[in-house]
Amino acid sequence: MRMFGYRELSKKLDKRNLPKHIAIIMDGNGRWARKRGLGRVKGHEQGSKVVKRIVEASARLGVRVLSLYAFSKENWNRPHEEVDALMHLLHKYLLSESDNLIKNGIRITVIGDLNSLSPTLRDLIADVRRRSGKNTGMLVIIALSYGGRYEIVEAVKAMVKDVQAGRLGIDGITEESFGGYLFTKGTPDPDLLIRTSGEKRISNFMLWQIAYTELYITKTLWPDFTREELIRSIIDFQKRQRRFGMTGEQIAVPEQGKAGVRGA
Length: 264
Ligand code: FPP
Fold this sequence. Notes:
Layout: H1 6-11, E1 21-25, H2 29-35, H3 40-61, E2 65-72, H4 80-103, E3 107-111, H5 119-132, E4 139-146, H6 148-164, H7 175-179, E5 192-195, E6 214-217, H8 227-238, H9 248-252
Parallel strand pairs: 1-2, 1-5, 2-4, 3-4, 5-6
Bound molecules: farnesyl diphosphate.
């Protein structure tokens, strides 16, 4: 089979139909390391280098939002050396990459249970958010100590507070207003969710937001993921018909239906 290079693949992309928001479950760092007889942390280190390349490539392609699942709430149960190493890598990434990203117009934010992070990492996150806040280029969302169920419960709590305080009526509780209480408020839902390493699970990632997201599951382990495969995933996405519960015929004649309608 003929393999296309980056340039050739880029030409196959329909620039008018790019996913606005790509979310990635970066999985397989441990297996990548094990295959090479290395410790798991080496896999995370390599994974971190791939993060840098994929962030840059996504911004260059014109993706508006890139969400990266870096550490789940459940990941706190891993051996503490691995947790420490991951926190260190995240700290290092923000420290070493933020100036360059910010200079290139990229906005960076972190979502999750930030209270469980070290004060040093929290301060760094606050600083990066503040310095990049006015940028208008691609938004990078790093999900850290994140859980989709946790996010939904936090949103419910905030919503109930507003109801109790009289700021929100029961009729004001809608799918749209609920979205405004999530960590991702103001950002479009992911159009494309990539999961590496072949596992066919969502692992508690953006449960609310991915209701109609297209899934791309690849056997490639995250440390082996390349910008070429990123493009291949987008080309695959562009071949799909997103129906949002409507029929194929309605999509072909959009005036007859209304995007976003829920259905079968
Ligand atoms: C899952 O692979 C990966 C993680 C839990 C961590 C992801 C972190 C990075 C890619 C590096 C740091 C991130 C940033 C944003 C700089 P796994 O360890 O579960 O792999 P396995 O299933 O093969 O064991």
